[in-house]
Prior knowledge:
The protein is mainly beta and 85 residues long.
Amino acid sequence: MNEFLNRNVVIDVQSQFVYVGELADVSDKTVMLNNADVHDLRDSKTTREVYVLDTKLHGIRANRKKVMVARNQVVSISLLDDVLE
């Protein structure tokens, strides 16, 4: 994951949340994002894929300066630039 440091990433987790932001740090237990959008998919009618694509097209709508995500909840991490349209 170090190759993704200081770049915008999408973090998919086991729960109904999706995280998008600048990857700031990775430790054994957490992944830290700066200027992050923490989105609860239960609060909208969109799918994870549509939400992430919309974020790529229109930019990150940051609602947190910093957020730590537990690594044991992470399913995948990808660059926002790698999201296919």
